[in-house]
Amino acid sequence: MSSSGPGRTWPLVGRAAELDDLDELLATTAGGQGVTVLLEGEAGVGKSSLVDALRGSARLLDVQLSTARASSMRPWPFALLSDALMQTSSRTALELELAALLDTLYALPVVPADEIARAGAMFADLLRSRGATRPWALVLEDVHESDTASLEVLHGLAHEGALHHALVILTMRPVPYRPELAAVVAAWTRAGARHLELRPLSGRATVELAEHLVGGDIGPSLRGTLATTGGNPRFVADVVRTARSTGALVTVDGVHDTTGSEWLLPLDELVRRRLEYLGNDVLLLLGQASVLGTSFVMSDLALLAREPVADCWRTLRHGLAAGVVRARGDRLVFGHDLVRAALYNGLDPDERRALHAQAAVALRQAGAPAQIVSSHLERAR
Question: What's the fold here for domain 278-379?
Answer without folding.
Answer: Arc Repressor Mutant, subunit A (1.10.10)
